[in-house]
Amino acid sequence: MADRNTIQKEIIYQTLCGLHCHPTAALVYDRVHQDHPTISRSTVYRVLSRMAEEGKILRLDLAGDDSRYDGEIRAHSHVRCRMCGAMADLPQPEVGPPEGDGGFLIEACAVMYRGLCPDCRREAEKLC
Fold first, then answer.
1. Phi, psi of 65 (to 5 degrees)
2. Are residues 88 and 66 part of one domain?
């Protein structure tokens, strides 16, 4: 029989994967808590952090914002609405190695596009 910790991890992972909005840990916790009120906030945060460190999920660290999480780990890019913060997945573009490394040991490359989501675009067009 699976131990409680494993069951909690699976619940948290399945909840994350069911949310296609690249949620914060707080949103994942809110959803988990609806059906599983015995799973604590600290457990959700700890499990998400550990899964990201292990490469089982992605952590998107956005300047000035809480980290977001993504259950899709295959290579892909993201687009984020500059007005409401909504995020979506995009196909991964071809990205070659940089000319120089600036002294850094480059470990990964992530492409993040910014723009307007369909809802915010419609609202912006109404103002013009």
1. -145, 160
2. no
Dihedral-angle region of residue 119 (phi above 0 means left; psi in -120 to 50 means alpha; beta otherwise): alpha
Beta-carbon contacts of 56 under 8 Å, excluding residues fewer than 6 positions away, are 13, 73
Under 8 Å between Cβ of 76 and 67: no
Residue 73 CA to residue 3 CA, distance in Å, equals: 26
Please name the residue that has the structure tokens 């015995």.
Answer: 38
- Is the same domain home to 13 and 64? yes
List per-residue pLDDT tens for the chain, 128 residues long: 455 678 999 999 999 999 989 999 999 999 999 999 999 999 999 999 999 999 999 999 987 788 999 999 998 999 999 999 999 999 988 888 888 888 999 888 888 999 999 999 999 888 87
Give the bridge partners for 78, in sequence order. 89, 112
Q: Which residue's entry shows tokens 């890019």?
A: 77
Which range of residues forms the domain containing residue 111? Answer: 77-127
Show which of 23, 47, 70 is a domain's final residue. 70
pTM: 0.83
- Kindly state whether residues 42 and 82 are assigned to the same domain: no
